Amino acid sequence: xxRVQYTDADVALMARMMRAEAEGExxxxxxxxxxxxxxxxxxxxxxxxxxxxxxQVIFQVQGGNYSFEAVQKGxxxxxxxxxxxxxxxxxxxxxxxxxxxxxxxxxxxxxxPCPPTWFGQPFAGQFKEHCYxxxxxxxxxxxxx
Length: 145
Known about the structure:
This protein has 145 residues and is an alpha+beta fold. It has helices at residues 8-22, 26-42, 54-58, 69-73, 83-94; strands at residues 61-62, 65-66, 106-108, 117-118, 121-127, 130-133. The chain has a four-stranded antiparallel β-sheet, covered by helices on one side. The chain has a two-stranded antiparallel ribbon with strand order 1-2.
């Protein structure tokens, strides 16, 4: 049983986002970004109470901007999904989740070291240039299922 329900269109959309956000970090980095996407679809808390599927996660608007910068600015996001990224997206959707993004709902690429918190959420770990953050204890039980 998949972690979230999905269509082939969701796979292609998620694959495009994974590539746009983390192609420079290889397949492992793209899988971590995929973790965050799936976790947001599962989270029924914080900023993610109204997103229940992959399309809603990718195109979510917060504070007047898309949650993922690549939707607004990413040339790679608007390229066709390749088979390798589709395979990785399916892997995330079906079962794959690992530290540091196992429970992460956010990531970003700082200009320096990863801060210990980001908007009040604790640092979970780092992979290459991206820092991953999971919900503070007791704030989002649904992501830990």
